[in-house]
Amino acid sequence: MRFICSISAFLISVTSVIAAVIPVDTLWNRANHNYSAGNYREAAQLYEQILNENGESAEIYFNLGNACFKQNLLGPAHLNYERARRLDPTNPDILHNLDFVKALQIDKIDEIQDVFITTWLDSVMNVFSGTTWSTVFFTLIILSLTLLFFFIFSQTSRIRKLSFAGFCLLVFLSVTSFYLGYRQRNHVLNRSEAIIYSAEVVVKSTPNSSSSDLFIIHEGLKVRIIEKQGNYYRIILDDEKSQGWIPRESAEII
Question: Domain 193-253 falls in which CATH fold?
């Protein structure tokens, strides 16, 4: 009897898993079919449904960005490409589409270039995902402890020297991998950037609609949020000079 109950419980659990997976596959196929058929609005709605029900995915964000771009929705397209890049920062298709959509923006902002060491660290950081960096870190720790064991218990001078040198090298690499993983985690969790959604936004001097106008920005531009107050964001552009206040509803956080 106990065996039969166990089998029944197993079958129920398997059935639940299958029931959970099938709708996702169905939605995915329907979304892709609508996209291929040119029904971009319907495809975008299905991609958004998948994201809402199953969490973030670089592939879904990328496809959603494509569906938005096909509808000439520059802001949503840029937003979803940025979200895709946040999860898969080295994907060449995502980077290509990002460059393409940025080239279509009305606002051309001269970006402040990062110093060489920052650019180099970012390029190394993006070699692996945060999860992979964690795996690398723990693997290096285990290897370094193994070499430490050989250093302590070996009776051969040559082996002791080599194991100690290897131990020092692996400790350095493990600390480096931990830092890169931590840096990438902060990058992924960072929610200080946003994409302008409105066709045109007047940037104000204070968080008040009656305050003086500073300048105008347009749909698709990426801005950095440096302060939040009421229904307004205080934003700064990539030139690190132009800043002001915009209504929250005019931008969507990446």
Answer: SH3 type barrels. (2.30.30)
